[in-house]
Amino acid sequence: MSSTRTASGKTNGKNGTWRNWGGNVSARPTREVAPASVEELAEAVRRAAGDGLRVKAVGTGHSFTAIAATDGVLIRPHLLTGIRAIDRDAMTVTVEAGTPLKRLNLALAREGLSLTNMGDIMEQTVAGATSTGTHGTGRDSASVAAQIRGLELVTADGSVLTCSERENPEVFAAARIGLGALGVVTAITFAVEPIFLLTAREEPMPFERVLAEFDELWTENEHFEFYWFPHTGSTNTKRNNRSAGPAQPVGRLQGWFEDEFLSNGVFQAANLVGRAAPAAIPAIARISSKALSARTYTDTPYKVFTSPRRVRFLEMEYAVSREAVVETLRELRAMLDRSRLRISFPVEVRTAPADDITLSTASGRDSAYIAVHMFRGTPYQAYFTAAERVFTAHGGRPHWGKIHTRDAEYFSQVYPRFGEFTALRDRLDPDRLFRNDHLRRVLGP
């Protein structure tokens, strides 16, 4: 199928091919559109429907699934950026859907404001991040989508629908993590709070100690996460807690050495060696697990929550109930010990409290997230398939933006409100204008 340029958009890559950040998904849309207003976006949706073309919106392509892939009309929201309004009485900010999280964080900081919690990168657009359930880690504070107080989206008939807890509440319950299946999000209203300081304590810790003390570490810290290096008994832990100050950021030279040179440059080189010589990976893992020493620093939230991720990888992540995380991790380690797999990337573990979003991975239950990664260009299927068996045995819910093989039948079993979402989809998009092959698999025909 040929790809065409439009006045308000451009093709991407060779021969009009769109590719995601991980490089594992590509698509050739019939046309791309970059609307500069909600009205232009609504017109693009109406025109696509008239032309018999499906519609998908895509941000920065950080999802590892084909959730945004289309052979129809690909909507680029990069002209729909910026803050619409700040309401200091309600403590909310309304932002255009194509705004990158990085730009939002910087703008909020200038206004003396902050999100309560965020994920570990900030390259995504606000709509892309929330629509797929992007999260960080938190004992009491939940995903980025759980901080939404209002949404605006263009639905399949080209109308603009606004929703909140009071206005179209049934749409609000689902559209905060809407998977691009209910419409194209054009603006989001987030809850914010006065900017604060976080003290981060990063410390190596034995894997067995982390598992034995997991409940204590979770209880005592506002934000706890850790990285376990397969083929070793080592982890790096991170505990973030609010601080009265003063700010004590990581020094520029130290930050470059640890976050850029070691965590990105040296780690990239180590993975290249491991890809060429898999037998060397256990030794590399032992060295990597000891490369970073303990450190403590205090800074503004987005500088503590997020970090640069320049090494390309593929990822699978599942949410299990928080009570099941230790047993699940033990089974994952036992599986790796029995196998001949050689894994060069650490396993990431985070938590989130229960929320009330229909298809949130933390919907209705306190959750823990286990993420497995493979260096881009390395065969990942055997590892991810074996890990997925472990996760699904515990009723795991896969991250909507990360690799998995589950389908609508499975989701109907692990999401008690799955039927609510599909019924709403039937009402808002009866002709499946926003459908693609991926959504057909995960939501049903």
- Whole-number mean pLDDT: 93
Structure class: alpha+beta
How would you describe the shape?
Answer: globular
Portion in helices: 25-40%
Spatial strand order of the main sheet: 16-13-15-14-18-19-17-20
Query: In whole angstroms, how far apart are the ends?
Result: 24 Å
Main beta sheet, described?
A: 8 strands, antiparallel
Q: Would you report the number of β strands?
A: 20
Number of helical elements: 14
Gyration radius, rounded: 21 Å
Low-confidence stretches: 1-11
Fraction in beta strands: 15-25%
What does this structure look like?
This protein is α+β, with helices and mostly antiparallel strands and 445 residues long. 31% of the residues lie in helices and 23% in strands. It has an eight-stranded antiparallel sheet. It has a five-stranded antiparallel sheet with strand order 6-7-11-9-10. A hairpin with a 5-residue loop joins strand 9 and strand 10. It is globular. The two termini are 24 Å apart. 45% of the residues are buried. Mean pLDDT is 93; it is low at 1-11.
Briefly, what is this?
The protein has 14 helices and 20 strands. It has 445 residues and is of the alpha+beta class. The chain is globular.
Topology diagram in text:
Elements: E1 18-19, E2 26-27, E3 31-33, H1 38-51, E4 55-57, E5 73-75, E6 83-87, E7 92-96, H2 101-110, E8 113-114, H3 126-131, E9 148-154, E10 160-163, H4 169-175, E11 184-191, E12 193-194, E13 197-206, H5 207-212, H6 214-220, E14 223-228, E15 234-243, H7 252-276, H8 281-289, E16 295-299, H9 301-305, E17 313-321, H10 325-338, E18 347-352, E19 367-375, H11 381-392, E20 397-398, H12 408-414, H13 418-428, H14 437-443
Parallel strand pairs: 3-5, 4-5
Antiparallel strand pairs: 1-2, 6-7, 7-11, 8-12, 9-10, 9-11, 13-15, 13-16, 14-15, 14-18, 17-19, 17-20, 18-19
Helix pairs in contact: 10-11
